[in-house]
Design goal:
Length: 512
């Protein structure tokens, strides 16, 4: 894995008098959300930065703004830090591994002091590892809630999952909630709170060391309360109205309910018109006890890559601080509906009156802050939802077996040997699985870095998969960053040739 040579912490900078240069412009790359319009908005904000800081010669650099998913940015940065973006946006759970890979610059004390004064405490915590602040808060809206069609879902049914399901079934409409396809969403049932006692059904927390490496997990998912959560999940999984989706575009395809976040507001408003509404998640009932669905809450962050050029890292840090300031956050709210982390921006009348952000605020009382989570967890935690879907309704033994499999897999990840961490596996919508199972690959010769899957897979041109190392997403390969797809139907073994020095690889299919 390539890493830069050093990390340079620059003190607070008001202006930088940088000499102009006649040589070819050096590239300064910014990765932002792929969401429509974010790239263009960021380009405009960079222009505004130039006006705000005329003494900073940003024209020395060729500033390139690219759309990269916040879910993928950290993985791409870690894969090759030197080739990654100079400034990049990502979800908070990725910070620990970015710190461990030396892919993000620690923020100087003076700058951190300004950020702590300007932003809410949750975002500051999200931007920190082991008491040190590494990035700039971008949003405080990385959570989810319920969008719904008021013409289908009765106002007096909003507190009951079962009643909402009945409304959808009666209208032959979809209830979209990613359960078997997303751990982030299905954790809502595990984090549900007892409406009588206020106690949360289950909890889970991951511990990192000073270097950002995840070393342990404390989980109560595999418990009787976990079974209650899965029984509640079955109410929806067993209904014909359920669809594994979080896209508010589904409102144009006969959906009446979509569980999503602020990024889905525009499509929801456009599709539903006067019937648009948003609220917190409902409650479900098991054995006459009611539990209000929980959720993850979190932040999106902006990081700066370490540089060997002190001048460039100073420019990047000042630019990142500007792009995450109050005015820029309010612009993103106005055009994209993103929820600010800046405390002054949160008091803006339009922000306080936004239905989607009000729904998020209502749900926050039931939300669990998204801390640092092992990269493999997002696949592993799909398994208990799949077990709930496949099990007979209220089959406690089958549900316990699904939770036991989940717990065993988590522990295996934390106790992997050096050989297992080095090995590659195949994962995807392949072999009858759905991105929740790693299939073993065997190295053809010791240290050859040529790997072939033990199993042959029946594939079509619609089959999608990737190859990854150590059952983690830190190092993974597909087709130029996308999932790999066969060009012809057939039965194949997967061959992977890895160049460890360059961190590149080639996937081939071998007819079996």
């Amino acid at each position: 894995m390539k890493k830069v040579l050093s990390t340079i912490a620059i003190a607070g900078v008001a202006t930088l008098a940088l000499a102009s240069c006649t040589k070819k412009k050096e590239k300064l790359t910014i990765w932002v959300s792929e969401s429509d319009g974010v790239k263009e908005l960021t380009q405009q904000q960079v222009k505004s930065f130039k006006k705000a800081y005329p003494d900073v010669n940003l024209d020395k650099y060729k500033v390139v703004v690219e759309g990269v998913s916040e879910a993928d940015a950290a993985t791409q940065m870690i894969a090759d830090v030197q080739s990654g973006a100079d400034i990049f946006c990502f979800a908070q759970d990725q910070l620990a591994r970015l710190v461990q890979a030396q892919a993000v610059t620690e923020i100087a004390t003076e700058v951190a002091t300004r950020l702590k004064a300007a932003n809410d405490s949750g975002s500051i915590q999200a931007a920190s590892v082991a008491g040190k602040m590494y990035c700039y808060p971008l949003t405080s809206d990385n959570g989810y809630y319920m969008y719904y069609d008021k013409s289908v879902v009765s106002a007096d049914h909003l507190d009951s999952l079962e009643d909402i399901i009945a409304d959808c079934e009666a209208a032959d409409k979809l209830f979209c909630f990613e359960l078997t396809t997303s751990a982030w969403y299905n954790a809502a049932f595990m984090f549900a709170k007892n409406d009588t006692t206020g106690e949360q059904l289950c909890s889970e927390s991951w511990t990192t060391d000073a270097d950002g490496k995840i070393v342990s997990v404390n989980s109560t998912f595999n418990s009787d309360n976990g079974v209650i959560a899965l029984r509640g999940m079955q109410h929806l999984l067993k209904s014909d109205c359920h669809k594994d989706s979080s896209s508010t575009g589904e409102f144009a395809n006969d959906a009446a309910v979509v569980i999503s976040g602020t990024w889905g507001k525009t499509d929801a408003v456009n599709a539903l018109g006067d019937n648009y509404a948003a609220t917190d998640l409902p409650s479900f009932k098991v054995d006459n006890q009611t539990y209000h669905l929980g959720s993850f809450s979190g932040n999106k962050l902006m990081g700066v890559k370490p540089q060997t050029d002190a001048e460039k890292v100073a420019v990047c840090q000042l630019l990142a601080e500007y792009l995450t300031n109050k005015d820029c956050q309010l612009e993103r709210f106005a055009k994209k509906g993103w929820g600010p982390s800046n405390k002054e921006a949160q008091q803006n009348d339009a922000v306080k009156g936004d239905a989607a952000l009000n729904a998020l605020a209502a749900q926050s009382a039931y939300a669990t802050p998204q801390g640092q989570i092992h990269g493999s967890w997002w696949d592993i935690a799909k398994t208990y939802a799949t077990a709930a879907k496949e099990a007979a309704k209220d089959d406690a033994n089958a549900l316990k077996a699904g939770l036991q499999k989940y717990a065993d897999t988590v522990q295996r990840i934390l106790t992997m040997t050096p050989e297992e961490l080095r090995a590659f596996t195949v994962i995807g919508a392949i072999g009858g699985t759905n991105w929740d199972t790693d299939f073993k690959m065997v190295e053809t010769e010791a240290n050859s870095n040529i790997w072939i899957s033990e199993q042959a897979f029946e594939m079509t041109t619609a089959t999608e998969f990737k190859v990854r190392q150590g059952k983690n997403w830190d190092v993974n390969f597909g087709d130029n960053g996308n999932n790999f797809k066969p060009t012809a139907d057939g039965t194949y073994k997967v061959k992977f040739t890895y160049n460890a020095d360059a961190n590149t690889g080639v996937i081939e299919l071998i007819a079996a």
